[in-house]
Design brief:
single chain, mainly alpha, 290 residues, 16 helices
Amino acid sequence: MEQGDNMGQETGETPVDEASLGGAEPSEESDMAGSDDEQQFSDGQDDDFDDTSDDFDDDDDDSSDLDDSGSDETLNSSDSDDSNDSGSDDGADNVDFEPLTDSYEELRHTEDSAELSAAARKPLPPKSDQAAFSRATALLEAVAGNQHTPLEDRIFLAETMPFPNILVKLSEDENDEVRKAVAANTADKNWLVGRLTKDKVSEVCEAALRNPRTSWKMRLEGAQNPETTSDTLDFLGKLGVESEPDAPAILSAMVRRAVALNPNCSQATLSKLAQDPSVDVQHAAQKRLA
């Protein structure tokens, strides 16, 4: 990657302007855009950002990822499997079974907390048994969306389930602790955890910002948000240096710089960022300390 013409000579870094994020909201410090440091930060962006723009492509809130869970297809295919199984032996006695859609609706609307709790904790069948596995995960979606499921069971599902159809249900739960558990789940799709960075409750937002599945775009927006707490800013201010050392250098430096400019950034973090490997992060922190 080529170095910018007018900056980063001391460290060899190539800075990038936040405007190149393609959709990131301009930060509140935009009134500083005319400063020398801000002008330096934008030089060379067209050449250098080509190598990093792909990191933001994952932010599309594309609900087609739900196809991985097969929520709707699961209901249909499992019903078909059950019907085929019931008629496979012409000479066999008729076996009573309940179609998946009936079971789903029952679990979705029942007020029997004991039944719901048992369903939430029931071990999943092996994936090798595709029909049974699909049926079980579809039924868990109904359990997750039923507010009569005990809170501890909804939190258990939010913490342990890797299936998007279940996590989406739980991400809309009325209880903050359930949404917070989803936000911290490292099996989340990045668009889902990105959605939770915008939650109405700050603890949910900040749990999402700490999730390694969160995109750099969401991290940058979190670092720019004046409502982000100093504890979360401390976490974001370490990205690419003390934590995630293999993170993209330009993107992590952009996040640390935004942390330095955030009015909630602690003095301890500002002091560290004033000695940051990136010249642009240093300058931003030193201006705040001046």
